[in-house]
Automatic annotation (TrEMBL):
GO terms for molecular function: 4 iron, 4 sulfur cluster binding; heme binding; metal ion binding; sulfite reductase (ferredoxin) activity. It is an enzyme of class 1 (oxidoreductase). It comes from the Bacteria. Its cofactor is [4Fe-4S] cluster. This is assimilatory sulfite reductase (ferredoxin). Catalyzes the reduction of sulfite to sulfide, a step in the biosynthesis of sulfur-containing amino acids and cofactors. Residues 188-341, 439-586 form the Nitrite/sulphite reductase 4Fe-4S domain. Residues 1-61, 566-592 are annotated as: Disordered. It catalyses: hydrogen sulfide + 6 oxidized [2Fe-2S]-[ferredoxin] + 3 H2O = sulfite + 6 reduced [2Fe-2S]-[ferredoxin] + 7 H(+). It comes from Ruania alkalisoli.
Length: 592
């Protein structure tokens, strides 16, 4: 570690020399225990220190595709060996899904083969969330024909399908790749999907279009063996929108658009963000990158992670742990000296967002047309819905759809005269362009319905909670959206630490002393936004847990208490203190 000094330890009377000439004076001090290697390739060598590292070195995860096509799709699920099934399949977007009927209390006690079904979740990789209506229709067809009409929009701008059989995977790949889509490195210890501004290239207030940089990253580096064995997953975000709409603070590397006072439009470089059970917000390197430099800088950061990332322990293998030890100054130095070969200019931070970054509602494009952003219930859609969205868009002359990091969907290029037709058509499909505050700002992970790690159900719980809160808080006019994030386990796929109200799934005791599904509550988290200067993690209150059944009542109670105790009590609009600010200063009793 840098920036640390070693202090001399106080003398041990059992080993120090004394003036009496006793036996203690001749006793030798115990040698220091050698430091255990962290598995950093450039420091410790490449010898695997755990089973995950061993199977990745034995055979690159990208190589499993040939076996899927030539062996497993023909011989069936039972022919798949463990390291492929539970490891390398992820390099192609495939996880086994949870067997129905296994309650959350058994999640931590059963082995993977006992938890899993003979079906897969398949993640379609959609960089920047950008789809054509033709691509959306192909995904819809796969869903309805080969995945029981399942489809979820994720908070990584992907679409996840369920109930996929290995026998159908080659046909799914054939259909996706025929329209320029795929599942390459959608999961695994690899560079995951690149988050991009959902309004790249069309927003009237865009600083610069990040699409060329995203496309170049993928052209050069997607599916290349040199980056297909990273210590853990590697997440990227790129935006040129003033709403900072890609949750950049919680990615391993991120590029945030800004106007440099001397160099013009470019990107502020961030590294080392990530949540899960050990959340850490990313940090600025203080460096400015031009659009042309973004792929090289991205590649340099990815190589640092590959070469210096910690590999011995899986729970310490994300880039955020390396950054915590190095600090941004050393990280930038290594990036420039060892990987770029040149210095990046210093740059200022991007200004605070001045507009919302979720893009919900009707907004003008820079070409005079409009885009319509609509909210499903926590990303849950279906193949039939996706096909209908494609048809609706094409009926008004649009061929472009975008997905957002907030589980929302946008229809681009809508003529002004067709805006109402599109908004009403989306509403008929369960996609609301003028949603309630909670419908707009609630997200949820997959939950126990399909996920082997989950302890509680999330999607339906969130949907029921939204409906109940709309009824309970109907008397509150102009309530500012409060982010409500539900996660089925501690891993924070739904970003619970960065929500106004974050909910971590666990089993809790109800009033009758029974163990039931519920949540630990985090309060006051959030990312930089038009109402928040900078990102911050939520606060936990000792003993603050809520059952799933009592969730709507709790959210109503804490929301009304916030409204009662904050400035501007006669209104719920922008003049009021933010929920996050109140939650961090409020007495614990006020939060229960």
């Amino acid at each position: 570690m840098t920036g640390q000094t070693t202090e001399a330890a106080p003398a041990d009377p059992a080993t120090s020399t004394t003036s009496t000439g006793s036996a203690a004076s001749t006793r030798t001090a115990r040698p220091a225990r050698p430091k255990r290697p962290n598995g950093q390739w450039k420091v410790d060598g490449t010898e695997p220190l755990n089973h995950n590292e061993a199977f990745k070195q034995e055979d690159n995860g990208l190589n499993v595709r040939e076996r899927i096509e030539q062996v497993y799709a023909k011989e069936g699920f039972d022919s798949i060996p463990g390291d492929d099934l539970h490891g390398r399949f992820r390099w192609w977007g495939l996880y086994t899904q949870r067997k129905p009927g296994i309650d959350g209390g058994r999640t931590a006690t059963l082995e993977p083969h006992e938890l899993e079904d003979k079906y897969f979740m398949l993640r379609v990789r959609i960089d920047g969330g950008a789809l054509t209506t033709e691509q959306l229709r192909v995904i819809a067809g796969i869903s309805t024909e080969l995945a029981r009409d399942s489809a979820d929009i994720t908070d990584r701008q992907n679409i996840q399908l369920h109930w996929v059989q290995v026998e159908d995977v080659p046909e799914i790949w054939r259909r996706l790749e025929a329209v320029g889509l795929g599942t390459t490195e959608a999961c695994g210890d690899v560079p995951r999907v690149v988050l991009g501004s959902p309004v790249a290239g069309i927003a009237a207030d865009e600083i610069l279009d990040p699409s060329p940089a995203i496309e170049e990253i993928n052209r050069r580096y997607l599916g290349v063996p040199e980056l297909a064995n990273l210590p853990r997953k590697f997440k990227t975000a790129v935006t040129g929108h003033p709403g900072q709409d890609v949750v950049h603070e919680i990615n391993d590397v991120a590029f945030v658009g800004l106007e440099h006072p001397e160099l013009g439009a470019g990107f502020d470089v961030w590294v080392g963000g990530g949540l899960s059970a050990n959340p850490r917000l990313g940090e600025r390197l203080g460096a400015f990158a031009t659009e042309e430099q973004v792929p090289d800088v991205w590649h340099g950061v990815a190589q640092i992670f590959r070469d210096y990332g910690y590999r011995r322990l899986r729970n310490k293998a994300r880039l955020k742990f390396l950054l915590a030890d190095w600090g941004p100054e050393k990280f930038r130095q290594v990036l420039q000296e060892e990987y770029l070969g040149y210095e990046l200019p210093d740059g200022p931070p991007a200004p605070q967002p001045r507009v919302p970054g979720d893009h919900v509602g009707v907004h003008a494009q820079k070409d005079g047309r409009y885009y319509v952003g609509a909210a499903p219930y926590v990303g849950r859609v279906s193949g039939q819905v996706l096909n209908a969205v494609a048809e609706l868009a094409e009926s008004v002359g649009s061929q472009r759809i975008r997905l957002t990091p907030h589980q929302k969907l946008l229809v681009l290029d809508v003529p002004e005269a067709a805006v109402e037709q599109v908004t009403e058509g989306l509403r008929a499909l369960g996609l609301e362009a003028d949603p309630s505050p909670f419908r707009r700002s609630t997200i949820a992970c997959t939950g126990i319905e399909y996920c082997k790690l989950a302890i509680v159900e999330t999607k339906q719980t969130a949907t029921d909670t939204i409906d109940e809160l709309e009824r309970r808080l109907a008397d509150v006019p102009d309530l500012r959206p409060l982010t409500l994030h539900l996660n089925g386990c501690p891993n924070s796929c739904a970003r619970i630490q960065t929500a106004d109200i974050g909910l971590k799934g666990q089993l809790v005791m109800n009033d009758d002393g029974e163990q039931v599904p519920g949540f630990q509550v985090h309060l006051g988290g959030g990312l930089a936004s038009e109402t928040r200067d900078e990102a911050g993690l939520g606060r936990t209150v000792r003993g603050l847990k809520v059952t799933a059944d009592d969730l709507p009542e709790y959210v109503e109670r804490v929301t009304r208490r916030y409204l009662d105790e904050t400035d501007g009590a006669d209104k719920a609009g922008p003049a009021r203190e933010s929920f996050a600010s109140w939650a961090h200063r409020a007495d614990e009793e006020a939060l229960k």
